[in-house]
Amino acid sequence: MTCIKKGARRPVERDGRTAEPDKRGLRREFLSVRNRLTADDVREAGRALAERALELPELVRGGTVAAYVSVGSEPGTLALLDALRARGVRVLLPALLPDNDLDWGEYTGPGSLARVQHGGKMALFEPSGTRLGPDAVTAADVVLLPGLAVDARGMRLGRGGGSYDRVLARLERAGAHPRLVVLLYDTEVVARVPAEAHDKPVHAVVTPSGVRRFPGP
Fold first, then answer.
1. pLDDT (tens digit, 9 = 90+) per residue, 177-190?
2. Which of 49, 66, 82, 149 yields a CA-CA distance of 20 to 30 A from 203?
């Protein structure tokens, strides 16, 4: 599948050098588009996303998948979480810590979720059972990443909180090499997003219309 967004913002030339587009500005743009989606749009996209994601063999072979519960206008993930559990996959979900790092717990169904308000931030749905520690993610065979966009190189634009930068750094320190998959809407696969030295490319993006793979890190 090829779904590079036409008209996506390109790097511009300044004094003979190529300048990357501003991350903050891009985040605002993508969030603005998401915020115009209706609840029905989000729900339908979530169903399609689950169907497409289950086309990835590495997601349904069993083992452990580190995922997350979507909130607001993010592409819906609950249908996918339940489908993975039905196929015997162990699903880990994050719990946000005060320093923006992530702890993990096991998803055993909708009843295992608790709505947690983190100060002035968006309320999150987190695992209510035993916490397994931040290093639990290193046992995952696949890590599903939230994001706002991904480009033709597989570089992901996150929300800017740094939680998943810590996850990716932890995986690298542990010598763990799970498949990295970002879940997005079709229009969020673009020509280019800004990337910094610490940013890592993902292996694949899943959107409601299909799967696209990248060479990967």
1. 999 999 999 999 99
2. 82
